[in-house]
Task: inverse folding
């Protein structure tokens, strides 16, 4: 297994070099060229221009520039943003990333679980009206014009009912009276989610070790998860900054609903199709013949095998979480990585645009690696 | 569950208490702020979004009056002394003395002195800060600044220029006490300019303006706090119909009048605030979100340098608490003749075209009010610099009268037609064909390049109508609706490869662009004088205008230049676009809403920050 991971890591490194090359040459082929834009940018001091030219070797030949660019990438030097000069690209990414990760990870997780659970039961209840209705709704949700959906949600829940905030990620009237940085709350929220996730993972492993009975395992897992979640909620409730976390989560509801509606159907439809294929397999017939309960056959035998393509989708979409979403971020005034990518490209801020692209690329490549490793665990037939 | 309910109640109560707070108004911005560091803000990060909340803290020696845009003292005590020629180390320089107001204080109580002024000029100049700093303290004009005493400075320049007034004398002033330790560290750094520009986030910087800016939640909002003992609070700005302008500053016992005598009809009186405790700048990433917030009442006004999109206006009009304001943008769309080519080089030909362009019909009927007719390079809204004596060709004429006038001009100049256009009973009864030049040669097709409808439907429509009007009297103009880049390439990259083109300019209150656009030395490749206009009389006047540091004299020269341009027609100015803005009348009230480039403009204090009132609070 370690040998396999090592091999995959080497492949990923090669892929990363290819990806960086594509980003580099694409940016260089854009009209105007980086050097010309840099030379004609009146807002940079001659010293700044000179230092950027030197750092990225823009006076040298294109192959040499590429080598220097690669070296910069691998030494984590993404340069200085033109449009936020003299702020380093890393600082901007670090500022935007937590907002994007919190919103899109939550939405991706929810849409995965909703899609997985609904796809599983749809396939099991094949031919019933609920299957047709859910499939039609799923297809509509999957193909709906996202801005239209978001505008409708904002109008209905924000303006008409007035239940949720219209947009932005916090309420300025509340935050006006604190010196807290929203960034801190975002990081604490991410930490909380990570800790709860870790607790769930540990309880899952423990449950596997403690008992062979599915029921007992489930009880251990659910109780530990409930305790971890309750502790997290309690901590935030008694914390003096809890109100600000609550405010951010409150502002997340509509964006998360929007992203979930748009993306859950994809998972649901893939899961449904995969399940339909799986339940035709011999081992499912054998499991049924053994007299196993219907639920056990569905969840333990069929769903586990059928979820492979869904897991692939899920892990890959987790990789893309860091790139955010331009439409969602823009319409909900949630400035994250998506808006950063769009604005930096429009402003011809090459260091920031390439930095954001490469950062996303690295995440997606790692997601691929995780998919490969998860496959080995999920499918006993896969051996390396 | 009980705990959660209590928490929810606390949140709701907190929101309620906070939003009921008096004297707080909310503005929307459509993009985030990238810096609050003034060295960076007026350097590489010079965006309108940074300026809106960021520039409230600073002052300048001179500024411009509200609505009339006259140059008036701000932190200076009266006008500067006339420039005197001196020689220093073999260099010829011009020196002026500026007295400073005594008794002005920064928000931290520190007195404002000459040290602040000298420091504020020296830092960007010595560090060669880019962007606006370079334009304001232009090294080809600015030489140095010297402190005479705590309330007097001497400014040395290399040559007299209007830029001395609109640049150097209006340069931003910061507090030395706050910035000096940072500057000292910067001087020890590898790149001092970068050090100064990256220092931040500068939230505790003392203010000499009406507000401090202590709160910046990145990507979400910024909040200013009113300076309670603001020196200029209660200052009266009284604008007289005769052009005089009077400032009464009670806290400093000052009462000064400029540009004439304080007598006769008063046009405007403004009393400086601040009238609100705080202005919150909420950041929305798109106009639709800001419009929703305005409709809901979460914000009172939308700050946007491009104005409101027309599509939102109808939606906003449905709310009786929202008022839509339309002001002319500071800019113009125009057609330029290539005077290097015949017949565009013939004044009669250009005048004929100028007669044909019926701006009122075009803007009010054809474009249905989405454009505002404009016929001069200096718009009427720029009251100080606009020459009301300039009468454009065809003003007040009907379409048929315009045809008649254009035909007469061409005939008088010796033009003939194969088929002469005829007008009978106020109608064009026969279209002209085959225009023949005075030298007997047939005028061939003249191409007018204009942006296509995809880029700018207004200009595309205008081009098609100008083509029609010209064709009606036999002038063979063909509108070539093409991409913006094609026009720019033809005009600048391909060395003026055009007959006529249509584009637009964004302009400034100080009309130094008149010289840039029409000065004969600027007619070379890449120059701004795209028509190739070459008139020694104009050049002389333009030089006199640009060299003037007395704005009354400069205005006389500007008027002469405007009259020459109107007569010679190197450009036909067509229209400007309206700057549409919306605000809630139940939340805020502005001191004035008729302003060039809108309420959001820097000329109106970026949303009239020191004049705006919160409606509930003022009641």
Result:
């Amino acid at each position: 297994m370690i040998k396999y991971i090592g091999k995959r890591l080497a492949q990923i490194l090669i892929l990363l070099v290819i990806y960086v090359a594509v980003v580099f040459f694409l940016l260089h082929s854009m009209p105007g060229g980086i050097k010309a834009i840099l030379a004609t940018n009146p807002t940079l001091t001659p010293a700044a221009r000179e230092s950027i030219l030197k750092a990225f070797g823009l006076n040298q030949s294109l192959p040499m520039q590429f080598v220097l660019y690669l070296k910069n990438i691998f030494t984590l030097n993404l340069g200085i943003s033109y449009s936020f000069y003299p702020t380093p690209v890393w600082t901007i990414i670090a500022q935007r990333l937590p907002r994007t990760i919190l919103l899109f990870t939550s939405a991706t997780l929810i849409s995965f679980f909703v899609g997985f659970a609904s796809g599983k039961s749809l396939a099991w209840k094949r031919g019933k009206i609920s299957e047709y209705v859910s499939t039609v709704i799923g297809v509509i949700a999957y193909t709906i014009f996202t801005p239209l959906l978001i505008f409708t949600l904002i109008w209905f829940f924000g303006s008409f009912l007035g239940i949720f905030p219209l947009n932005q990620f916090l309420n300025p009237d509340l935050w006006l009276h604190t010196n807290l940085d929203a960034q801190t709350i975002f990081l604490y929220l991410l930490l909380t989610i990570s800790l709860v996730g870790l607790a769930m993972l540990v309880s899952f492993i423990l449950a596997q070790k403690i008992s062979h009975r599915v029921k007992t395992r489930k009880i251990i897992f659910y109780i530990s998860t409930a305790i971890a979640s309750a502790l997290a909620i309690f901590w935030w409730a008694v914390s003096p900054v809890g109100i600000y976390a609550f405010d951010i989560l409150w502002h997340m509801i509509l964006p998360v609903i929007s992203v979930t509606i748009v993306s859950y159907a994809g998972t649901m439809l893939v899961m449904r199709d995969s399940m339909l294929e799986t339940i035709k397999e011999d081992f499912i017939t054998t499991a049924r013949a053994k007299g196993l309960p219907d639920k056990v056959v569905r969840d333990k035998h069929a769903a586990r095998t059928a979820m492979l393509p869904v897991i692939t989708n899920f892990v890959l979409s987790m990789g893309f979480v860091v790139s955010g979403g331009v439409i969602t971020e823009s319409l909900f005034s949630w400035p994250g990585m998506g808006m950063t990518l769009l604005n930096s490209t429009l402003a011809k801020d090459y260091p920031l645009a390439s930095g954001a692209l490469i950062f996303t690329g690295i995440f997606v490549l790692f997601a691929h690696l995780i998919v490969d490793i998860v496959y080995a665990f999920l499918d006993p037939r896969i051996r390396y | 569950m009980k705990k959660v309910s209590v928490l929810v109640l606390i949140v709701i109560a907190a929101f309620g208490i906070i939003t009921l707070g008096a004297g707080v108004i909310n503005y929307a911005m459509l993009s985030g702020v990238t810096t609050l560091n003034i060295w960076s803000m007026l350097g590489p990060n010079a965006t309108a979004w940074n300026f809106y909340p960021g520039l409230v803290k600073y002052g300048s020696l001179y500024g411009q009056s509200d609505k009339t845009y006259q140059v008036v003292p701000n932190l200076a005590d009266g006008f500067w002394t006339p420039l005197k020629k001196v020689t220093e180390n073999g260099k010829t320089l011009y020196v002026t003395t500026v007295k400073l107001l005594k008794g002005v204080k920064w928000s931290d109580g520190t007195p404002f002195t000459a040290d602040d002024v000298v420091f504020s000029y020296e830092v960007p100049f010595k560090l060669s800060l880019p962007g606006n700093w370079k334009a304001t303290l232009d090294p080809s004009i600015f030489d140095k600044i010297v402190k005479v005493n705590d309330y007097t400075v001497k400014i040395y320049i290399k040559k007299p220029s209007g830029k001395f007034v609109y640049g150097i004398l209006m340069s931003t002033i910061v507090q030395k006490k706050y910035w000096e330790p940072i500057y000292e560290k910067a001087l020890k750094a590898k790149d001092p300019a970068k050090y100064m520009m990256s220092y931040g986030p500068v939230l505790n910087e003392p203010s000499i303006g009406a507000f401090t800016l202590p709160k910046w939640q990145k990507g979400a909002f910024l909040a200013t706090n009113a300076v309670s003992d603001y020196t200029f609070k209660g200052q009266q700005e009284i604008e007289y119909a005769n052009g005089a302008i009077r400032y009464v500053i009670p806290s400093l016992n000052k009462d000064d009048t400029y540009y004439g005598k304080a007598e006769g009809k008063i046009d405007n009186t403004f009393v400086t605030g601040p009238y609100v405790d705080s202005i919150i700048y909420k950041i929305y990433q798109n106009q639709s979100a800001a419009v929703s917030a305005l409709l809901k009442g979460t914000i009172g006004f939308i700050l946007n340098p491009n104005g409101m999109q027309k599509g939102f206006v109808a939606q906003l009009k449905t709310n009786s608490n929202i008022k839509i304001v339309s002001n002319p943008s500071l800019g113009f769309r125009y057609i330029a003749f290539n005077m290097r080519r015949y017949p565009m080089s013939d004044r009669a030909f250009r005048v004929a075209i100028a007669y044909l362009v019926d701006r009122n019909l075009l803007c009010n009927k054809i474009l249905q009010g989405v454009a505002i007719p404009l016929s001069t390079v200096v718009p009427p809204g720029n009251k100080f610099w606009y020459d009301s004596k300039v009468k454009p060709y065809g003003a007040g004429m009907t379409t048929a009268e315009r045809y008649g006038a254009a035909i007469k001009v061409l005939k008088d100049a010796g033009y003939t037609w194969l088929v002469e256009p005829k007008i009978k009973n106020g109608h064009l009864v026969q279209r002209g064909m085959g225009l023949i030049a005075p030298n007997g040669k047939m005028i061939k097709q003249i191409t007018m390049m204009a942006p296509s409808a995809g880029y700018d439907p207004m200009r595309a429509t205008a081009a098609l109508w100008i083509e029609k009007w010209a064709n009606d009297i036999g002038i063979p103009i063909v509108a070539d609706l093409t991409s913006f880049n094609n026009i720019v390439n033809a005009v600048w990259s391909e060395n003026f490869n055009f007959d006529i083109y249509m584009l637009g300019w964004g302009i400034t209150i100080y009309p130094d662009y008149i010289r840039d656009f029409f000065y004969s030395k600027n007619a070379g490749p890449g120059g701004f004088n795209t028509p190739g206009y070459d008139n020694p009389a104009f050049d002389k006047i333009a030089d006199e205008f640009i060299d003037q540091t007395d704005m009354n004299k400069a205005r006389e020269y500007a008027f002469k230049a405007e009259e020459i341009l109107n007569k010679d027609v190197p450009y036909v100015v067509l229209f400007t676009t309206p700057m549409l803005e919306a605000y809630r009348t139940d939340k805020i009230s502005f001191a004035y809403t008729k302003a060039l480039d809108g309420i959001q403009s820097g000329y109106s204090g970026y949303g009239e920050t020191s004049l705006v009132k919160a409606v509930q609070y003022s009641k």
